[in-house]
C-alpha cells in the first residue's frame, strides 16, 4: 500500500470514529472527500486544490478530483457544524474534566483578501483551533461585533460548568467584549494600548507610570476608556526579557495570576505559522470566497490536529 493511501485510510477511519453512527449516503461521501482533502493537505503541504489532488490517493484523474474538492467547498451541507464540531466538543469535554479551559482569540489573513478570526484552546504550548469566522478584508482591526459573534459560537460548544479563561491582544480589549466575558463569569486578561484613557480619582494613562525593566504595577478598581467601563484592574508590566512594557486589563484579582495566564497568549502565533508558512500555506489557497475558505479551514484544522496527534504519539512511544 502506498504512503498516500495509508495516510488517507488512517485519517478516514479516525474521522468516522467521532460520529455515533455509521456514515451513510451523501454524508459518507462528504466524509471521504474531507479525508482526501486532509490527506492531500498533509502530504502536499499545501492548501491549493491542484496540489492536494496530486497527493490524494484516489484513482480518478486529477481534474476530476479538483472538481470534487471544489464542490465540497461550495456545499452548504458541509463545513464546521457537520464535520468539525464533533472534534471540538470531544477535545473540550475531555480536557474540561481535568483543567481550566484557556482560550485565545486572534486573527490572520488567509486566502485572497480574507481574514480568519479564531478562538483556540491552549494545550501543551500549542493552540488547538475551536471556532472561527472568515470575513472579507485585509490586515487590521475587525469590528467588535465579530468578536462577540465568535464568542457566542464558542459558548455553543463548551461543556457545562467548565472553568474558562480568555486571553486576547490589543485588538480585543473592547468594553462590550469585556462586559460579555464578565456576564459569563469568565476570567479574562487582554492587552491594551499605553495611551488608553483610564479613570481613578481623575483621568490618567499608562504613560504616567514611568515603568522600568522589572517593574509590574497594578491599579485595581479602575474605569476603562472614555466609556468608563469597570471597575477593572489594569497592569503595567515590564518583564526584564521584554524590549518594552506591556499593558493589560483584567478581572483577575491576583496580578501574578493575570500575568501568568497572559504569557500563554503568545503561543497563538504558532498556529497561524503552522497553517501558513511552516505548514499548509493556507494564505496561498487562491480562494477569495469567505464561505469556501471557512470550509477549507475545516480540512486545514483537522490536518493540524492530526499532525499534533502524530507528534504527541511519537514522543510517547519514543
Write the SSE topology:
Elements: H1 3-17, H2 25-44, H3 49-55, H4 62-74, H5 80-83, H6 85-95, E1 101-110, E2 114-123, E3 126-136, H7 144-157, E4 164-168, H8 175-183, E5 187-192, E6 198-199, E7 203-204, E8 216-224, E9 229-237, E10 246-250, H9 255-262, H10 268-275, H11 290-317
Helix pairs in contact: 1-2, 2-3, 2-11, 3-4
Features of this protein?
single chain, about 325 residues, alpha+beta, Transposase Inhibitor Protein From Tn5, Chain A, domain 1, 2 domains, ten-stranded mixed sheet, 11 helices, 10 strands, about 20% strand, elongated
Give a concise summary.
By secondary structure, the chain is α+β, with helices and mostly antiparallel strands.
Describe this structure in words.
This protein has eleven helices and ten strands. The longest helix has 28 residues, at 290-317. The model has no long low-confidence stretch (mean pLDDT 90). The chain has a ten-stranded mixed β-sheet, sandwiched between helices. β1 and β2 form a beta hairpin. The radius of gyration is 22 Å and the shape is elongated. The protein has helices at residues 3-17, 25-44, 49-55, 62-74, 80-83, 85-95, 144-157, 175-183, 255-262, 268-275, 290-317; strands at residues 101-110, 114-123, 126-136, 164-168, 187-192, 198-199, 203-204, 216-224, 229-237, 246-250. The protein is α+β, with helices and mostly antiparallel strands and 318 residues long. The chain folds into two domains: 3-83 and 287-317; 86-269, Transposase Inhibitor Protein From Tn5, Chain A, domain 1, CATH 3.90.350.10.
